Amino acid sequence: MNNNLPPDSPIQQLTQIFGSNGLLTDPAECWSYGYDNSKKHAQPDAVVFATEHDQVLQLIELCNKNNIALVARGRGSGTTGATVPLKKGIVLSLERMNKIINIDPDNRVVTAQPGVTNQELQQAVAEHGFFWPPDPTSAAFCTIGGNLAYNSAGPRAVKYGTPRENILGLKAITGKGDELITGTYTTKGVVGYDLTRLIVGSEGTLAVITEATLKLTPLPEDKRVLRAIYDDMHSAAKAVSAIMAQPFTPCALEFIDGTAINMVRDFSKADLPQNAGAMLMIEIDGPTSSLADGVKKIEAAATNSGLLSFIQPKTKDEIAELWATRKALSPALRNVAPKKINEDVVVPVSEIPTLIDSLEQLSQKYEIKIVNFGHAGNGNIHVNLLVDPDDPVQAENADKCLDEVFTTVIELNGTISGEHGVGIAKRDFVDREIPANALNYMYDIKKIFDPNGILNADKTLPLRKL
């Protein structure tokens, strides 16, 4: 770094704000902060590490004054390129803002900085008998700030909801440089517009979250894990609709198709049958006295002509191995197809069979292997196209196939993203789902929060045609 820069240069000011240990300018050191789990990459000019709210405030003021692009990020586990610095500029890493500020068991509330990992938060509040419902597969690594930015939920959303349903308030700084305190400390409150849930899911395009007040849920007294195997995907999809139509709501209902089962078999210790067309992993929780009846209700709903087996793993090891199978899916698929295309579409639960049929047809039409798994209880299916995008023919077929996947999802009253966000990967498809007049309001909201367009530019909303 040039130590002879004038005192009012941006780099010198960044040094004053963050100190020499909180600033990277060497291109080699900045390189790894230019990509996320989408593998898309752009080189930032500098990376800064905030530890407190006031540093973020000063940084946003500096970026506005000098018209510098700014992208905030946690650990970079997102899959849509939402934290890739398309316009270079500065990447603001929030991983060092990792304090749990306060746990208030009496009011079922925890207040934390955005760099706390999901797993760290869960472990801390569990000591008081609580949990925070959002539980993405990457919980050991992903941060609370990232969970909120994407509204990432995980399996438990089927019963307990997404981050939007499990947050009370925020402390944030808008792209304009205004400090905001939003929401309430109570679980009920209707005063004013709901800025909290507007910011959640906005992927850092409106404001940078520096503190979050989260709603906790008491740990359940007991759990049961169930596994249902079907001879085809269609039968499993029908079972999902039946399970969700009865009153005993599972806390997780995961769907894995036969192709995925075969691919993950070598990465799993669980006993996975060779003839499985699809598998449902079901978890129920609640008072111990109610769970035996819950198992009966779930089994009755899960039973149809395609059911091959329905079992309840008994030991902790068997249960752990089953869930490890689900968590091994993404890594296993990346070994098979390192540059696979993974989309997390959502359709109404009753439309899952139609979606699965359509995906089978598209797989045959474009000669692309499609592997499906996901959070079936709320219709959130992860559609994996196993292609090599570096192969021009496969890339062209994949683009056409993906286009039809999104068209089908929207025709089924679904949405093109359930929890992975939009970023740049799905940005150009958004106007298919959101009408023009609604998009215009969103552009106006972006302008109010971030008038100079410094925050996470060109993400989430389609590029506006001038």
Overview of the structural elements:
The protein is α+β, with helices and mostly antiparallel strands. The chain has 3 domains: 10-93, Uridine Diphospho-n-acetylenolpyruvylglucosamine Reductase, domain 2; 100-218, Uridine Diphospho-n-acetylenolpyruvylglucosamine Reductase, domain 3 (2-Layer Sandwich); 222-411, FAD-linked oxidases, C-terminal domain (Vanillyl-alcohol Oxidase, Chain A, domain 3), CATH 3.40.462. It has 16 helices and 18 strands. It has helices spanning 10-18, 27-30, 53-66, 118-126, 144-150, 157-160, 195-199, 233-244, 258-264, 288-302, 316-327, 329-336, 352-366, 392-411, 430-433, 436-449; strands at residues 23-24, 46-49, 70-73, 90-93, 100-104, 109-112, 130-131, 167-174, 179-183, 207-215, 217-218, 222-230, 252-257, 278-286, 307-311, 341-346, 370-375, 380-385. It has a 7-stranded antiparallel β-sheet with strand order 15-12-14-13-17-18-16, sandwiched between helices. It is globular, with a radius of gyration of 23 Å. The two termini are 39 Å apart.
